[in-house]
Each structure stands twice: as C-alpha cells, then as structure tokens.
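Follow-up to my post from last week.
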Amino acid sequence: MTQQQLGSFPGGLKLPGHKKRSTQMPIRRMPISKRLILPLQQHIGEAAVPIVEVGEKVLKGQRVARAEGHVSVCLHAPTSGVIRAIADHQVPHPSGLTAPCIMIETDGEDRWIERDPVLDFRSLSSHEIRQRVREAGIVGLGGAGFPSFIKLNPGVRHHVETLLINGAECEPYITCDDMIMRERAAGIIEGIEIMMFALRAKECVIAIEDNKPESISAMRFALTANKALSETTRIVIIPTKYPTGGEKQLIQVVTGKQVPSKGLPIDIGIVCHNPATAYAVGRAIRHGEPLLSRIVTVTGTDVTHAGNFETLFGTPIRELLEFCETKRQPDEPFIMGGPMMGYNLSGDDLPITKTSNCILVGVDDVAIASQPLPCIRCGECAAACPASLLPQQLYWYSRSKEFDKTEEYNLFDCIECGCCDYVCPSKIPLVSYFRFAKTEIMNQERERRKSDIARERHENRLARQERERLEKEERQKQRKAALAASKAAQKKAENTETESTTETAAVKEDN
Amino acid sequence: MLTAILALTLLALIFGLLLGYASVKFKVEGDPIVEQIDKLLPQTQCGQCSYAGCRPYAEAIAAGEADINRCPPGGEATILALADLLDVEPKPLDEEVGAEKPKMLAVIDEARCIGCTLCIQACPVDAILGAAKHMHTVIADECTGCELCVAPCPVDCIDMVRTTPSPTTWRWPDPEHITVQEKIEEEQA
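User reply:
Got it. Predicted complex:
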C-alpha cells in the first residue's frame, strides 16, 4: 500500500503536551469501591430505564437498565452487589444538576453473570453484531458518548469506504487512548476486525499522532500478527497539532476531504471510532463482556501519583483522587476532560461515567483570570479556528443575542476546541459565549415546538367548544321542534276529540 | 390623439383583466401577517396582554391596535422577534401587564382537590385531566404555565412551581453576567 499524501486543516495550535506525567506507569486497576453510583444517562440520547428493584442482588455484567428508544444503550452492574437505591444524585455535568441514578452497594466478590462469547464473529450477521454492541452498552469512549451501534450501521443509502480509528488524542494531559494502544493493541485490532465486518468497510486507517511512538510500534506489531487485516489496514502517522483529534479535522488530515457543514462523516463514506471503543467492541463480541469500566487519566500539577486507571463506572471520583494522592482540598473544583475542552466540576460524590476520559487537578502555566478587555478585531481567533469560522463575528452576535445571525455564521460547526480563547489577546472567553448561544438556540427551538403543540391544543379546544355549542343549539332547536310538534299533535287530538264529540252529539240529536 | 386614447384604454383594459384574474387566482387565505405574529407568541393563552388569547393579540398587533410589548411570558426575546418582524423599534415590557417571570408549572395538591372541574374549564390547552367529583391532575408536559387555573379553584389547591432544568435542558449561563470577581468569589467560597 502506498503512503498517501496527508492533508491538513486551517488554524490549530501547537500546544505543550504535558503527557509524560501520566505515562510513566502502566494502566493500574482501581480497587472496587464500596458504593457505585450509576447515572441512567451516560450517553447521548434517551436515558436508560431501570429494570431492577431496590434490594435486588445483581451480578457483575448483569443488565440493570434497558435502552429506551433508538438512540440509547443498556447499562450493567460493574460488579456484584445489591441495589441500594434508585434516586436522583449529582452527576458529572457542567450544570452541577442531579439526575436519576442507580446506587449499588458492592459485595467485593466480583462475581460474573454467565457470559455469551462468540468465538467466530463471522457467524453473526452485521445486525446481530450491532444488537450485541447495543446490549453491551457501548458508547463512543472518546468523550462524546454517542451510542456506537448506530455508527456501525452502513445504512441503505451509504457505502462505507473507510473505518477511521482516531488515535490522535491531541488534547494536552490526556493519555488514556495512548495507554490502551500501548498495552492492549491486540484487543483493539480484534475489535477493528469486527467493526470492519459489521460496516463492510473496504479499508481501515488507524491515525496516531507522531508524539506517541510507543503506541505506533505496539499497534504495528499487533497488526502484523493479523495477516488478513493487515492487507486492508494501515497505520498513518500524523503531525501533532491541536485539535487534530476532532473528527472532522482528522478526516481532513487523513483523507484531504472535508465533511460538509451540518453533514456527517458517513456522507463521504467514512466512519470514525475511538481505539478504546474498538477494544470494547472486541471484548463484547469475543468475550461476551459488556462495557463495565474505562481507562481514566488522572493527572495535573497537584496529583502525586498521576497515571491511567481502569475504573469501574460509578466509582466516586473522590476515591480515585484519594488513590492517586492529590493536594486538592475537599470540594475544591477540578477539571473533567482536558485543559482546552474540559469543564470545571465541584462536588465530592460525583461518579466516573462512560464519558469520563480525564480528571485534571492543577494545570501548568494557568492563565490568571482577568476581566476580559474589549475585542480589538485583530482576527487572531479566525486564523486559529480549525473549522474556518469567524469567532469575532460569532462573539458579537452571541453577545447581542442575535441568534439567527450566529446561525448564519455557522455557529453549530464550532467544535468548542478553545483555540480562539487561547490566542485572544483580550482574553475574551469566546467559547463560553458560543456554548451559551448554542444552548439558547436549542432552547428556543424546544420552546417553539412546545408552543406549536400548545397552539394546536388551544385551537382544538376552541373547535370543540364551537362544535359543542352548535350541537347544543341543534339539540335545543330539535327539542323545541319536538315540543311544538307534540303540542300541535295534542291540539289536533283535542280538536278531533271535540269534533267527534260534536259529531256524536249531532248523531244523538238526529236520533 | 384618438389612437393614443384607444391604445391607453386597451392597455388599461388588459391590465385590469390581468390583475382581476390574478386577485382571484392567487388569493391569500387569511391574513399572513397575523399568522407570522402568532407564530412568535408563546401560545400560553394566558390573556395577560388583556386580549382573549395569543391569536386575538396577534390580530390586534396586526391591526395596529396593540403594542408589541404586552406579552410577559414571551418577555424580551418575543419583543425582539416581533420588532424584527414588523420592523419597529423594540421597547421594554409594558409594566402595566406585569413582569417577565421564569417558566412555571401548575401542580394540583391532589389530596385537597374536590373534583369541581372548574380548573379543567379554565385551562386553555386542555392540560388538566379529571372528572366531576374525582381528583384532577396536570399533564406536566402540556402545561404552559398560564396561571388561569389558579383563580377559579375554590379550595386553592393549585400551586405554580418553577420548572427545574434537567442536564439535557440546562443552558449555559450568559457570560456577560458572570464577572471575574464573582468567579473568584465562587472559587474561594
């Protein structure tokens, strides 16, 4: 296979990686927590619906909530124990709000439920593979948490050319994908084989940034061991630049093609998955293991023993931080995700979920919070934007709440990478404005749909009242008519009676 | 002279016929501007604007009888949208009709409900369910928070509560209102 010329995307930044801190130790297993908190919504789409009752004993890998609707996945008990409660609990979300969770008290025995491994995945249809992936609760482990089975469906209208494995991991500090590629390359390759089969994809590209030489060699080694797959799969080494790991940016780098605005990669025949997701698919099909844990990077300047930890879902983040020994005080905020795209969380009892890729406590060369200065229209943000947007225009319109204008300037193509924030000489929190505008627009859309329903219900009510009024009138008219008719009949009867009496009288007289 | 008059008369006749035909053929049903205004109103049917519902208010705006700043549930967003549509200057909400409030939801205290059906009759969007002498309840998804059911209740068992956002409906705060000082204070607290 010939090495293709790499493309590139506009803008982007060269950032210090800070990755060495958490790659000094192999992946360690986090001890089982006494109590696990499982939010029912750990993915994009409809929340899962609990199918267990409080007090019920569950085994490791047992389904505790089923998928609801199409865009949804199942949820499983990460270890054996007893369901203690199904109640609202604070979830790791920028809002700090609560959401329904299943609380499990673990018994420490870690007893598995009976598993159903499929040794030869080719005996399954691609529909069966998708069904199993859905049942196993697998979502994109890169951070967004979109149900993976949907992205394993080539559909009727599309034809998948390329399966792209996104091993870029471009954001500073985060190393969970790097570590899984180093240590579990064979498992990832196993998963890729299944994904290729389900998608009927022609080729697979594993894209890894050039700052991860250990991952590259591990993946190469694992790939050469699989003769059949190595014919259709290649590893592409891409230059380290932020945000190459953005799906659309990576596609541009690897293929030179652009995903259309408001479009999906599948529109140009590409499906993109994270290496950890591929590993999870392999485990689910070949070993019958649902998704119960993930690799979480715990790092930052205030962490003493930084590293990557295989952590069961629902493990309180506090326990993970205690395990790594941090200088953090209780209830002090920390970052979920990386320094560029992550968000602040505070609260000690938050659980690890399917989308928690990194816990960051303390960042090097942190920018001192200062009052933002006015925009000087220097255009640095536009030069840095990897999606070719005009952040300063979007900023003006978001600020003045002219949301229709922000949409005209393609606000929804913004991937919130934070490059514009980083380069802004006035230190304007641009992404905060864009996030605000996006959720406002989505809310307006929701309200509009609701008001349409309200209008319809109101109109239906008015129509019903009108109909009832008419019916009442009609009934009254009928009753009146009936009354009049009966009166007339009575009168007539009386008349005939009198007539007949007069007649009989006449007859009598005659006699 | 005569030809000119004839030609102009003929032209006038032709165009008259053409326009007459067009006005019959392409007749617009209803008043489109009323529809457009109605689309922007929140459809709570609450009557706080002093009209009998959103559509009558829309008709009044279209007729130039009412101002665009009389809708408290719609608030600033609706006024801006109306100003944009009608190409007039936006103005603050009319104090006479009340203040902009967060979205509310009617909740019936089911233990106290006597089943009088008065609230069912008052609800403009049929969001209350129940029968005579049986407990009533609010269909939360359909309630517009118009408060019209509160006054008719003889036992005062309907409360308006603030709707709490869930993580999926939560909105990022307006950065304009968060000053750095607040942020630092928050972090220290």
